[in-house]
Design goal:
The complex is a heterodimer of chains A (260) and B (306). Chain A is an alpha/beta fold. Chain A is 32% helix and 24% strand. The longest helix of chain A is centred in the last third of the chain and has 16 residues. Chain B has 306 residues and is an alpha+beta fold. Chain B has two domains: 180 residues, no CATH class; 105 residues, Alpha-Beta Plaits (2-Layer Sandwich). Chain B is 70% helix and 7% strand. The chains are: A alpha/beta (260), B alpha+beta (306). Chains A and B meet through helix 2 and helix 3 of A and helix 1 and helix 8 of B.
Amino acid sequence: MPNQPATSAPNNAVIEFRGVSLRYDNGHAGLDQATFAIERSDFVFMIGSTGSGKSTVMRLLIKELEPQDGVIRVAGRDLSSISRKQVPFYRRNIGVVFQDFKLLPNRTVYDNVAYALQVTGHSRREIREKVPDVLRLTGLSTKLHNYPDQLSGGEQQRVSIARAFVNHPPLLLADEPTGNLDPETSIDIMRLLYRINRTGTTVLVATHDHAMVDKMRRRVLELSQGRIVRDEATGLYQRDESTREFVSRLRTGDDRPDGI
Amino acid sequence: MKPNVKANFNFAFFLRESMRAMRRNAAPSFAALATVTVTLIVVGVFIPIVQATRGAADSVRARVEVEVYAKERATPADDARILAELKALPNVQKVVFESKAQALAAAKKQDPAAYALLSSNPLPDTFHIYPTNANDALPIRQAILGVGNKSDGHAKLDRDIATVSNHTDDTQKLLTVTRFVTITAALLAALLTIASVLLIGNTIRLSLFARRREIEVMKLVGATDWFIRWPFVIEGTIVGALGAVGAIVVLGVTKLALLDPLASNWTLIAAPRTISFISLVLVLVLSGVCVSALGSGMSLRRFLRV
């Protein structure tokens, strides 16, 4: 499955946009007839300058906005068929990461991650099992009892990724996850997202960092003024590349092993 | 991607959440608490005052009566006839008959010295008419006197009626004043209620506004509206209850220290019938809790629309 080209077999797509348009009240076109599909366990970048519609795609996917035209399917389900009451349950299947982290400032790292499980009605025992696991995965085991304002930007972003991933959602959306971070920290975050992708989770990352995207050689959707202007699902990269190889390419742009 | 767990109501969790919120947002919580306390103190003072005012007005109005005097020649049979006729008039609550002898006895009791000098009884048989509503006193008087109010007296309700007491001006003034007092008190009470609800609602809204980011995050991780709302409602209940307790303590101390000694020295204060302290406590606690719990729950609606 994972080696199928992205353009075929829409039934297998996790995300499918067909002729989706959205115009904001101020007349600005958020999206204009966008059509694309993203395969299961794919890692896709969405690039474009500010106002090109990247965030609109994200907000449509978590049903924060409704399109005026077109059909959006997530895992085969038409989003317009989800009622307002069902939205919270739908969102539990999607992890979301934002540029500004959106952590709860009055909770510790542990509680921030645990909150996503409390919301879904997990028992305390499950929470005690799952939270340390995901914090280990994201390298935050030593920061358990810190509050968000005691952490660096990269650490805060890793907390927000931990929170997004603790439910093991089939889909992870990241809207400018490295927008506030320095290049080295950005690589850490990308590596973490890639590691999550390797567990089978479909990852969609919006960014305006062309350089980083070029180095990573993943599938790239480019948006400009609400239109898809480029969709490169080329076979330039190996799908089953190890995280280590992935990172080394990020650092250097070639295949030299990295020195961590 | 089907809805998995149903909206789960875990009271212990919600209680912990609201406690945490209050601890972490001490300043807005305290502001809400203080607002509730002050508002309830004002309400708690105002309820008895409105009641006392209305009670005073009502007791004055209850004393409004029409007195009908029978002619000298009236026999007990005539009196009985007049009594029946008066009772048959519309809007008459009751008619009390006072015979010449009874009237004299009552008058003697009031001023024994003056009446001891009299050789005969100058007082007529009297009918005291109490209208169902004080406003009806004047129409009743008109009905007895007859519309034309002719000087020969034949238009009167009964030929054996001599006169009807003439307090038209006094009655009119009394009615106007008491009506004004009652309406003013009701208006003030309504204004105060509106002001309290707005004030408490606004304070709650302010503290919610400070936490709108938090609510946004909760929505993003898939919390249902009620999952977000319950801690706020519980917090509102606690703040409302604490505010009510504060107001009651202040009111209780004031009552014990100031009002009770005054009332025992000066009967006038105790005279009008007002709400008992226990019912006042119940009213304050209930309204405090309801207004702030409902206020929190409903103000949240605005922020839940993400």
